[in-house]
Amino acid sequence: MIAEDDEKQAELVRRYLEREGHCATVVRDGRAAIELVRRQPPDLLILDVMMPKCDGLDVLRILRAEGFDLLVLMLTARSTEDDLLLGLDLGADDYMTKPYSPRELMARVRTLLRRTRVPDAAEPEPEPAAALTVGALAVDPERHEVTVEGEYVECTPGEFRILAAMAAEPGRVFTRQQLLEQLHGFTRYIGDRTVDVHIMNLRKKIEPEPRRPQRLVTVFGVGYKLSAPKPPTASRARTSTAAPERPRSPVRRSRGVRDA
Questions:
Q1: Which of 20, 83, 158, 205 is the 20 to 30 Å CA partner of 150?
Q2: Rounded to an integer, what distance in angstroms lies between the CA atom of residue 147 and that of residue 245?
Q3: Rounded mean pLDDT of the chain?
Q4: Of 37, 45, 58, 42, residue with least CA distance to 3
């Protein structure tokens, strides 16, 4: 589905998608996009940020809040890092700034759809991936779920990809660039701060005390690693035996002194 208020751009994207063998529907405002997704969720939503009635960021915020897990590729004329990070935090899967190359856009579409491709009937079905556990933290790639001590933790697609990559190799130190590579399509447009934002948000969700992280820790000068919290060390009991308490001697009253 294409949510784009610019008629020429929407028609151009639609034609390129149809050349790739996809069926594409065009809507021209944010409210129409929300209503159509509710009726018939598409495999992929190409979502413009600047739209009438309801902008693309609000559309994405509403759809994610309602539990729609469809792929979202955002298009915007805004090119500041804060705008890109906001799109990431809301759950965008990819982000392109205008003007863009239609051929590159189609390459991004192919990459995103490849992750949800249904295997051919002749192909053997792969065994479901086992959940990745790091202490009380569990990351299930098959169900796209994260739990901490059995409690469900809601993560954006970007947060989940970073956490899953780190959970697959607990204890390994990942550089920011290595974690950026988990965010398909974003490395050309944004820098290391993207990873820091994801790490900060993840700590709020998986750490008992986000300001004193025990699971998702910083390795200064290198990057981040994920590990199980160390159990508290029991203090050694002192073996010295206390001296027996000496009995108190009775208080002698002086002569001539009466009780009050």
A1: 158
A2: 54
A3: 79
A4: 45
